[in-house]
Every structure is written in structure tokens, then in C-alpha cells.
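Milestone M4 deliverable, item 7.
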Amino acid sequence: MVICIGREFGSGGHDVGFKLAEMLGIPYYDKKLIDDMEGLGMDRKLIEKADEAKASGFLNTPFYGVTEARLKGMNINDIVYQLQCEWICENAQKGHCVIVGRSADSVCEHAGIPYVSVFITSPFINRVEKEMADHGLSERDAASEVVKADKQRRSYYNYYTDKEWASPSSYDICINAGVYGIDETAKFLYKLLVDELDNKENIYYKRSETY
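Output delivered:
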């Protein structure tokens, strides 16, 4: 089972994904994608800036500071996206895992890798309060960060996929972590996904048969 988790900024999607992977006893992938890409000669700060963002400004200019010849001349965002796609495919094909963000659902779909897609949402005020608590920000600054991050994720997902970010029709499961909380959301998904694996008519198996 490859579980791809999309999330609104501050919704707790990262924590839900981590706890779910822990409960299922399978690998969890998020920032490790960035760690592995550092070995290609790219500056980590540059990778993080381009991570889950579509090309814009100076990042849209040709870049040659990468070790692999096939990537030279592409813009930073496209280089990072291409490497992430390859990384996701390589690790998703190894076995069960949870992958957060990076349009992993679309990557798996185009690669013919069966998956289940989940989107984690939460009320705006909950997400603002979380940012205030986590980073000591004022309400105004926290709200600005949430809006900015959501806009970036939407632009990235909509640009690199043929789906619409945060639209229920783009995912198999959408859940409000603001209602259930992190732990209960993970437990809910765990029970749902484990039960689904026992049901040969579920989405995962139907995708397996299609691919």
C-alpha cells in the first residue's frame, strides 16, 4: 500500500502521516527526499526553496549547478520536481510506505503504481492558532504564513498535475483533522485502510487490476 497524503498548511498532515506510518509499521517519507537530493551537488537551501513550488522569478532561469548532465539547463523547480518523481517511484515500488506532499498521488498514477490518496484539512482559524503556538507568531503573521503556503502548494499541485489541489474530487479520502485531532485522525485512517486491504473491491485493488 502506497499512501499519498496531501495537506493544507498547518492542518497537521505531517504529524498524521508520521503516526499513520508508525501504526502500520511502514516507511514514512517527507523531508528525506530533500536529504537524498543533496548528494547531487545542489545546495540544500536552494532545494528547499524550490520544494513544492512551481517556477517563478530567478528560479525560472536555466540552472547548471547540478552533477547530472541530463538536468543541466532546466530551471531549479523542474529539476527538483523531476528528481522527486524519480525518487518517489523508486521508493514506492519497494513496498508499503506513506509519502507526504510532492504530488505523490499524481506521480504514482502516471507511473502505474497503485496508491490511496488522502487529503488532510482543518479550519483556517485552527491552522492559524497552530502556527502561532508552534512559531510564536502574531495572529496576523500566522494567518499570512498559512495563506502564503496554501497558495504555493495549490500553484505547485495544479501546475504539475492534471488535478485541482484541495478539491475533494482529486482524492480518495478527505478528512478534517481539526475535528478529530492528530491521533484520532491517524487511528481513523489506520482502521479504514487496514479494513480496506481486506476488501478485494477497494480502491487500492481496483487500481492494481487497472495497472
